[in-house]
Design goal:
This protein is an alpha+beta fold. It is globular. The chain contains four helices and four strands; from the N terminus they run βααββααβ. A four-stranded antiparallel sheet has the order 2-3-1-4.
Length: 100
C-alpha cells in the first residue's frame, strides 16, 4: 500500500457560486501534482453544491505540508464568499487500498 495517511474534505458551496468552487477544485490539480508528499489527490462533486477532496500522503509530514500548502490556503481564502459553511476536514487512516 503506498500510503495510510489521508484526508477527506467536504465542501458546500453557496448555490450561486457552485461553478466557481468546481473551477477552483479543477484548477488545483497542478498544485496537488507538485506536492512531493501527496500520493493521490481526488476532487469530486456529490451534488449541485456539495464537493469533496480525498487525498493520501506518503507520511504524516506530507499530510501536514498539504494542510499548510497552497490548496488549503486557497480554499480557506474563499470560505466567506463562496462557501455555505467552513469545510469539514477529516484526518483518515487508510486501512486497505487497491492502487491503479
Amino acid at each position: 500500500m503506498p500510503s495510510n495517511n489521508g484526508l477527506l474534505v467536504r465542501i458546500e458551496a453557496r448555490a450561486e457560486h457552485a461553478e466557481e468552487v468546481a473551477a477552483l477544485l479543477t484548477g488545483a490539480l497542478d498544485a496537488a501534482r507538485a506536492e512531493e508528499g501527496t500520493v493521490t489527490w481526488f476532487a469530486f462533486r456529490e451534488g449541485p453544491t456539495v464537493f469533496g477532496i480525498f487525498d493520501t500522503f506518503a507520511d504524516e509530514a506530507g499530510r501536514v505540508a498539504h494542510l499548510e500548502g497552497p490548496i488549503a490556503a486557497a480554499l480557506m481564502e474563499v470560505v466567506p464568499r463562496l462557501l455555505a459553511s467552513e469545510p469539514s476536514i477529516r484526518v483518515v487512516d487508510i486501512l486497505a487500498a487497491k492502487p491503479a
